[in-house]
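User: Sequence for Thioredoxin family protein below. Tokens please.
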Amino acid sequence: MIRRLILLLAVLLMPAAVHARGIEPRLVAEGPAPAGGEVELAIHMRPNPGWHGYWLNPGDAGLPMDVRWQLPAGFTAGELQYPVPSRLTVADLMNYVYESDYALLVRLKVPGNASGTVPIRAQAHWLACTDKICVPEQGELALDLPIGSGTPNRAQFDQWRRAIPQPLATLGKLQVAGNTLRVAIPLPANVAAEQAYLFPETDGVVDYQARQSFRRAGDLLVAELRRNGNAPQRFAGVLALGDGRGLEFNAVPGEVPKGGTRIGGKDATAVVWAVLAAILGGILLNLMPCVFPILALKALHLSRAGGEAPEAKRDGLAYTAGAIVGTGALGVALLAIRAAGAEAGWAFQLQDPRTILILLLLTTAITLNLLGLYELPAVGGARMMSGSFGTGALAAFVATPCAGPFLGAALGTALLLPPAGGVAVFAALGLGLALPFLAVAYVPALRTRLPKPGPWMAKLQRFLAIPMGATALACLWLLWRLGGAKGLEIGLVAVVLFSLLLAGAGLFQKKAKQTGYAATLVAVAIAALALWAMPAPHPASRVVEGAERWSEARVQAELGAGHNAFVYFTADWCLTCKANEAAAIDREEVRQAFYDGGVAVLAGDWTDGDPDITRFLESRGRAGVPLYLWYRPGKAPEELPQILTPSMLISRAQTARR
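Assistant: Structure tokens for Thioredoxin family protein:
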């Protein structure tokens, strides 16, 4: 039904594009045709920039090519052989397409009595689309084929043949388990399949947009797909291996083995490195402006307490437990969302204005505490432990806008691991976040070096209020970006009421009156009312000056035109992204170098969790932003460091100009 609607829409829009053909076809032969033999023909399709054609199963929308041959007597044409396609999401529809030149191959049988030159003709119909318009196109394919011997066009056809998936002789097995279709594909264990993707030839069986997972079971590769129809009696598809190669297979109902090693999780060394990178990345997160004040406050707490070993150790353990549970819980939630089929990445919760509102109120409360408008009650024993646990969890929550050095690859690996391994990597992030305070709590030499209590503490607290207050202002700005003017108004009113409440509680504290329970109830009421009134997210995309919106099709178009391209993926809640944009990307000398070098600048705004960007980040082994890529025609993209400098970009732009 979707395809019929797409075709109808294409017909309605055809007058607007009647003067422009999206894809240019031509029919060519590998060489002269031997009498009584066979010759390879190719329908060479050449999409114009921005256009694409469709595979034999177009996916959620589109139409495959239809060819009706008009051949001399005795000649017969085989079935069309399609090259391995690529994926393209348009309007939340998963399409299997070709965005650059491709060729459909067909074997032509020649009768023994053929001679001279014979006319080979065909009427072809195909659908050509951009991301905004589809046009049904048609034309006559014509070739005058000489019969005899001669020099074949072997090099060109060998290149096209390499793009055709190779058939697997052994049948695979398929089995239905609830809403999951499991397909066991015969594949030797020594064949790399880290970037595997299954393109189903059988239509209407699986959900094309759902995430695919793979695991190894000896010489079988088991694909797990979300079922979207009745269990088929036969299932055909193409297994793409990520480097342009593909394997064509057929599967019939049968037993599919359980267990095995999930792709991406078999290398124990990779898991260890991911955990170590997460720990190191967590340590570095303590330097971020929204986290450093919390760490400093804990150090001040130790200094005020006199640095006694038993209390310090208990406090450190509780803080560490809170940080580990906090990042681990966020990891569990992220993995559960992805298991349900949604595209999500690290800091997914910050794509919702209600979460930003909670973060805004928390950072406001911490800022006012640092300014001395009210005091958190001093507690001991179990209550101190619970307070430290909550502080650790709070630090984990406010750290999520950041994906600094080491974290991108580590969290990307976590999403490829089995659930237990993925949660372990997220928990390791919390451990790294807590390690500095844990070291102070457990190493006497560090603890005894803490400054003695004195007036300097009040001055330090006031200073720490500056970065925390800046974080609160950033939350207000992000509320405006995600929730519009109404979201900003609700945030401002909530902040004012929250501030008046805490300032009033501080006045009662100075008079030695207890206000904890009443203040807490009113604070919860303010937060609940603001959350209830907060509108749904409707962000307005923004990129730096001189940049255009990213899409995979746009990147290919720029490369096809011979241009270098700098692609950066960002989000409004990503502090590292904003720092790089201000310090390196959005600078006059960098923009001029890009202009002089003819470098296209494309930006992917992930503020609202764009699923196209999520899938692309996942394909690069990333779970979050920032990600910076430099493309050169004919070469693999270069991944730049997560901390950029102007000279790093200018030097590459100057190379592009030469």
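The domain at 2-163 is CATH 2.60.40.1250 (Immunoglobulin-like).
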